[in-house]
Automatic annotation (TrEMBL):
<keyword id="KW-0812">Transmembrane</keyword>
<feature type="transmembrane region" description="Helical">
    <location>
        <begin position="431"/>
        <end position="449"/>
    </location>
</feature>
<feature type="transmembrane region" description="Helical">
    <location>
        <begin position="224"/>
        <end position="244"/>
    </location>
</feature>
<dbReference type="InterPro" id="IPR050367">
    <property type="entry name" value="APC_superfamily"/>
</dbReference>
<feature type="transmembrane region" description="Helical">
    <location>
        <begin position="366"/>
        <end position="385"/>
    </location>
</feature>
<protein>
    <submittedName>
        <fullName>APC family permease</fullName>
    </submittedName>
</protein>
<keyword id="KW-1003">Cell membrane</keyword>
<feature type="transmembrane region" description="Helical">
    <location>
        <begin position="469"/>
        <end position="492"/>
    </location>
</feature>
<feature type="transmembrane region" description="Helical">
    <location>
        <begin position="264"/>
        <end position="286"/>
    </location>
</feature>
<feature type="transmembrane region" description="Helical">
    <location>
        <begin position="104"/>
        <end position="134"/>
    </location>
</feature>
<dbReference type="InterPro" id="IPR002293">
    <property type="entry name" value="AA/rel_permease1"/>
</dbReference>
<feature type="transmembrane region" description="Helical">
    <location>
        <begin position="20"/>
        <end position="42"/>
    </location>
</feature>
<feature type="transmembrane region" description="Helical">
    <location>
        <begin position="154"/>
        <end position="171"/>
    </location>
</feature>
<dbReference type="InterPro" id="IPR001734">
    <property type="entry name" value="Na/solute_symporter"/>
</dbReference>
<dbReference type="Pfam" id="PF13520">
    <property type="entry name" value="AA_permease_2"/>
</dbReference>
<keyword id="KW-0472">Membrane</keyword>
<feature type="transmembrane region" description="Helical">
    <location>
        <begin position="183"/>
        <end position="204"/>
    </location>
</feature>
Length: 509
């Protein structure tokens, strides 16, 4: 049951309904939401792993593809903002889709959200471990220290420590989260800006690896040589923007419940696209797209572009980039926990999960039980997959792109359907409540089906296969089937939620 140790605070949308779950109120403002949103996207960590593969797919049109990936994210965020105005609820996708399309769609949409966020927690922790030992090696001058990350027991033990630390901060509430994030986000943004300026400095001074003057053609998405390359690049660029919706899951804890989260979500996307554009153009101008030593087309550096380029670009300060990627993955590890915990809180609150998930800590006003469950699942998953095969672990992480496109797409279409009768009241309503979310949702669902189709190729991801079918597709299908099974089990345990027909004038209860 929800904690009721104090009277509920009214948190109303346009429909005037109150849905208080016991979370702390007024804990996050616009700046705090922006910082947490940026930390969840983790620009330093994301760029390090995404610049190379994206450049290998689209060449010098890298900045254009990053801008194209930004478009559906912005359109969907506009839909999220409108839904949050009408129904401010920490359940977001779960609550909105349940109310609009019914409990089955809402439950499965939230399953995809939970699968994506919990899977990425494992990846973030693994990356944090890699850069932790790399930074220690650079600081100490001992090369063998960096190899500790390849020692499976040491790697898993370190990963579990990072998981536990991140969970402890999340458990203690958003005030602790904000303080932690302000420091780490500021540090990684400063280092990324330093890297971009230094790269442009080398280009201007003639000391760049493959100095290439910036051209307008880089920003032309129609210059990509094939649609397959374009689709592959867009799929990668969509992933690098994922995570901004965490600020909307904090709506019940925000100052200005119906307005601040939506503004913070859009502000997060705008800040990140500006940062991505600056760093991608600087990197492209410095390194080019060849397959030579530091070229972005070199497969040997694509998994971690900054590890290869930080030295040539930043000189003796290269260790700062390792620390920036470490801080980026660590801060995202902690802030990413916000979303699944609050989604499970809402599901427990409305009867879609056990009432245990609706428990809120009486002191910290956080979904303590849900937070612990999320980190335990992510920790066990990482430990098991790391022992079985690192390829299986990374291919499983790759499948989260499909989950993201699905639940973002469903949520955007929920906005269209929910506001269908009032969307034509004005031009502004038509754009923000119908056109923008419709286009964004359809684009992401197209990317979902395209990715599912492409991932059937054994060459997709790590190149592993099962019976001639790509492992990424098999794992994605397994997660979807597991979700259907989990939903059926929950229906058998508590059919009341699934049998209910939600009226348009009320939340699920």
């Amino acid at each position: 049951m929800t904690d009721t140790s104090r009277p509920p605070t009214r948190q109303q949308g346009e429909d005037g309904r109150a849905h208080w779950k016991g979370l702390s109120t007024g804990a996050v403002g616009l700046l705090g939401g922006l910082v947490i949103g940026v930390s969840t996207i983790a620009p330093a960590y994301t760029l390090s792993g995404a610049l190379g593969p994206t450049a290998s797919a689209v060449g010098e049109h890298l900045p254009a593809i990053l801008l194209v990936g930004f478009v559906p994210m912005l359109l969907v965020a506009i839909g999220y903002r409108q839904l949050n105005k009408a129904m401010p609820d920490s359940g977001t996708t779960f609550t909105w889709a349940s109310r609009t399309f019914g409990p089955w769609v809402g439950w499965f949409g939230s399953w995809c959200l939970l699968a994506a966020t919990i899977l990425v927690l494992s990846n973030l922790a693994g990356i944090a471990v890699d850069f932790f030992y790399l930074a220690l090696s650079q600081i100490s001058g001992q090369d063998w220290v960096a190899d500790l990350t390849r020692n499976v027991p040491v790697n898993i033990a370190t990963c579990l420590v990072f998981m536990a630390a991140a969970a402890w901060i999340s458990y203690r509430g958003l005030e602790a989260t904000k303080t932690f994030q302000y420091v780490l986000v500021t540090f990684q943004v400063v280092v990324l800006a330093w890297f971009a300026v230094a790269a442009f400095g080398h280009v201007a001074g003639g000391s760049a690896f493959d100095a290439t003057p910036v051209r307008l053609e880089w920003f032309n998405p129609f210059g990509v040589e094939s649609f397959s390359a374009f689709a592959a690049g867009v799929a990668l660029s969509v992933f690098i923007y994922w995570g901004w919706d965490v600020v909307v899951t904090m709506n019940e804890e925000s100052r200005g419940t119906t307005t601040t989260p939506g503004k913070a979500a859009i502000a997060t996307i705008l800040v990140v696209v500006a940062l991505y554009t600056a760093v991608s153009v600087a990197t492209l101008s410095f390194a080019g797209v060849s397959t030579a030593e530091f070229g972005l087309g070199n497969p040997d550096i694509q998994e971690n572009v900054f590890a290869a380029l930080a030295g040539p670009v930043m000189g003796p300060f290269a260790v700062l980039m390792s620390l920036a990627v470490l801080s980026s993955s660590a801060s995202s590890l902690q802030s990413t926990m916000i979303s699944p915990a609050r989604t499970m809180l809402a599901m427990g609150h409305y009867g879609a999960l056990s009432s245990k998930y609706a428990k809120v800590h009486p002191t910290y006003r956080t979904p303590g039980y849900a937070t612990v469950v999320a980190v335990v699942i992510a920790s066990v998953f990482y430990a098991v997959m790391r022992v079985i095969s690192e390829n299986v672990l990374w291919d499983t992480i790759t499948t989260l792109g499909m989950m993201v496109c699905f639940y973002y797409g469903v949520t955007a279409l929920a906005c269209v359907w929910y506001f269908r009768r009032e969307a034509t009241a004005s031009l502004g309503a038509l754009v923000t409540k119908l056109v923008a979310p419709l286009l964004g949702g359809l684009l992401l669902l197209v990317f979902f089906f395209q990715t599912a189709w492409d991932s059937m190729d054994p060459a997709y991801g790590s190149g592993s296969e099962v019976g001639g079918v790509g492992l990424v597709f098999v794992l994605g299908l397994a997660i979807f089937v597991l979700g259907l099974i989990a939903m059926a089990v929950q229906y058998a345990r508590s059919p009341e939620f699934f049998r209910r027909r939600f009226e348009t004038t009320e939340y699920p209860t």
